[in-house]
Specification:
By secondary structure, the protein is of the alpha+beta class. The protein has helices at about 15-20, 35-45, 60-75, 205-215, 230-235, 260-270, and strands at about 30, 50-60, 85-90, 100-105, 115-120, 135, 140-145, 150-155, 160-165, 170-175, 185, 195-200, 220-225, 270-280. It has a domain at about 5-25 and about 105-280. Helices cover about 20% and strands about 25% of the residues.
Length: about 280
């Protein structure tokens, strides 16, 4: 059975929800002070997942708002702004107070990108019978459990040359365009996973060399060596989580011209977008 091309795996939210596996965790309880303290730590842990929101469900809206205030009391002053991610909801059917993940849809978070990444994690608290899913924005850093999976879609120009890889140790890379699963598992050994997605108007030599080295790997991760390390070569060594710079192919280096139109045309031929997403093992 042939592997689907990356262009044929364009995703919509409806498809994501329809194809999600029937796995869910119970809502996180917020009935005791210990529950509130544990949830406050969870909110802090997802601080760099910019599109993750939390709905606090209680018998009345007033009770939900009071519990949000209790959670904020557990946060240090520098992180009080995370309270904007907590959404109160009153429900006559609620028994006690609990929290569930609520993805923010239709926003691009801290960084615009024509790629979209959705993470499904059975360890995240979700409404009963629903699967916990959360979108990521470029630069995001999200903790994930050992059974988490992710999906990748591209919504930019179809004419673009697309590259989709992820890397654990420097040089340990898999080509996501040839992975057979719709829901791609995170690394089984719990290593941080750096998802590197790029779009270019023309082939990018650096990324083409990685694709060639991974030819025939059928989406499995291969140790290619430090000479192929994506983070060091493309995203800058030592920049830390969420680092993101544009890859500039040699075609974008043009001689200074008195004609702005000519310079723009030359540089646009090699325009490339790179987006980095980081999945790390949840504590």
């Amino acid at each position: 059975m042939p592997k689907p091309a990356l262009h044929n795996r364009l995703l919509t939210l409806a498809a994501l929800l329809a194809l999600s596996p029937p796995v869910w965790a119970a809502p996180a309880p917020l009935d005791s002070e210990a529950d509130v303290a544990a949830f406050a730590e969870r909110v802090r842990a997802y601080a760099h997942a910019s599109l993750v929101r939390w709905t606090i469900v209680a018998p009345t809206s007033a009770e939900a708002e009071a519990r949000i205030a209790a959670v904020l009391d557990k946060l240090p002053p520098s992180e009080k702004a995370l309270g904007r991610r907590l959404i109160p909801q009153g429900s006559a059917e609620a028994h006690g107070v609990s929290a569930v993940v609520s993805p923010q849809i239709g926003e691009n978070g801290g960084g615009a990108c024509s790629w979209q990444v959705w993470v499904t994690d059975p360890a995240l608290p979700a409404p009963e019978g629903q699967t916990a899913m959360a979108p990521l924005a470029a630069h995001d850093h999200m903790p994930v459990g050992p059974k988490a999976t992710f999906r990748v879609g591209h919504f930019g120009l179809v004419q673009s040359r697309l590259y989709a890889f992820d890397e654990t140790r420097p040089g340990a890379i898999r080509d996501l365009a040839t992975v057979s699963e719709v829901d791609i598992p995170v690394p089984a050994d719990g290593a941080p996973d750096y998802v590197v997605l790029a779009a270019a108007r023309k082939p990018a030599p650096v990324l083409e060399s990685v694709k060639t080295a991974l030819a025939g790997s059928q989406g499995e991760r291969k140790e290619l060596g430090l000479q192929f390390a994506l983070r060091e070569r493309l995203l800058g060594a030592g920049r830390g989580i969420g680092a993101n710079i544009e890859v500039v192919p040699s075609s974008m280096i043009v001689r200074k011209s008195d004609s702005p139109a000519a310079t723009k045309s030359d540089s646009d031929d090699g325009l490339m977008e790179t987006c980095l997403y980081t999945l790390t093992p949840a504590r």
